[in-house]
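ok trying again, last paste got cut off:
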Amino acid sequence: VQLVESGGGSVQAGGSLTLSCVAAENIFSSCGMGWYRQAPGKEREVISGIATDGTATYADSVRGRFTISRDNAKKTLYLQMNSLETEDTGVYYCAAVCGSSGYWGQGTQVTVS
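nice, full thing came through this time. structure:
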């Protein structure tokens, strides 16, 4: 499954960004999806996930500020990020779990100053 992220950029603290992740294959609707973040000098961490039934989970660090959603018809995963903090800076990766296989996007940079 090919995943392509977009929507990253530079924003001031307190601002908002929306990330998108488009899947190339039609099996998107049967995949669990998630967003990961890798901050400078740190390991990649999961920040949010969404199951095929739409059930969403969030890391404590982003709960209440970020919202994950999916549009199966458009094969697209979203991450709405509000009240951004400097600690949110990093490369954001889209991930898919489809059956027993996992896939990553190439990542999109988010810089909060």
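cool. The two ends are 33 Å apart (CA to CA). DSSP finds no helices and eleven strands in the chain.
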